[in-house]
Design brief:
The chain has 200 residues and is an alpha/beta fold. The protein has a single domain, classed as Rossmann fold, CATH 3.40.50. The chain has 5 helices and 11 strands; from the N terminus they run βαββαβαββαβββββα. Strands 2-1-3-4-11-10-9-6-7 form a 9-stranded mixed β-sheet, with helices on both faces. Strands 5-8 form a two-stranded antiparallel ribbon. β9 and β10 form a beta hairpin. The longest helix has 17 residues. The protein starts with a strand and ends with a helix. The mean pLDDT is 97.
């Protein structure tokens, strides 16, 4: 059974734990060096200074979390172990590789606490096997990729051109801007089983 390291605690990220366990893995919140892969979950915004911008619309910033997740990403990148970023996690990956973010976009945040749904187009990649060439994903974010980081490729787009997924050219690192842990079982299980199948 593969072990996935997740920053935070079980109470805060129970839906991610459930999704990983449902796919046949286990989640740990300690000893990342002993884990097979890293999961960067959703959450509040990164501090904009980390990608060279003043704060114009970012909120809920947690500088300790920023620091610790970027350090974890560096550790797993050096070890070439798989990483999956979800929503904020995708943005952490992009910033780690030198990319920038749009601090506020319209039409993608949750409405009255409920995820939006929109169509995406997926480039040839493992994600196409999960989502199809044209599929529907959920959406609960107000920030997105502006400039892609070095070594990253866009893999999925919303109709308004927002990057909804990305991958690294040489490392087993992937990010989705949507929330697979809140998707229907068919998509959720496919994505997390694929993540657990990735090798270093």
């Amino acid at each position: 059974m593969k072990t996935i390291y997740l920053w935070g605690d079980a109470a805060r990220f129970s839906n991610y734990c459930r999704a990983v366990e449902e796919a046949g893995g286990s989640v740990r919140f300690t000893n990342p060096e002993t884990c097979d892969a890293l999961l960067l979950p959703g959450g509040a915004d990164l501090a904009p200074w980390r990608y060279g911008q003043a704060n114009t619309a970012s909120r809920g910033i947690d500088t300790l979390r920023d620091t610790e997740e970027l350090e974890l990403l560096q550790r797993f990148a050096l070890l070439k172990r798989p990483v999956l970023g979800v929503c904020r996690g995708l943005q952490v990956i992009n910033v780690y590789f030198g990319g920038t973010l749009l601090q506020d976009i319209a039409g993608h945040s949750a409405a009255n606490g409920i995820d939006r749904r929109h169509r995406v187009v997926t480039a040839p990649s493992p994600l196409r096997e999960i989502c199809g060439e044209s599929g529907i994903v959920n959406s609960a974010h107000h920030q997105a990729v502006e400039r892609l980081g070095s070594g990253l490729s866009p893999l999925q787009w919303s109709p308004d051109g927002i990057i909804e997924a990305l991958g690294h050219h040489a490392l087993p690192m992937w990010g989705v801007q949507w929330h697979p842990e809140r998707m229907e079982p068919a998509v959720r299980q496919k994505l997390f089983r694929w993540f657990l199948s990735l090798e270093s």
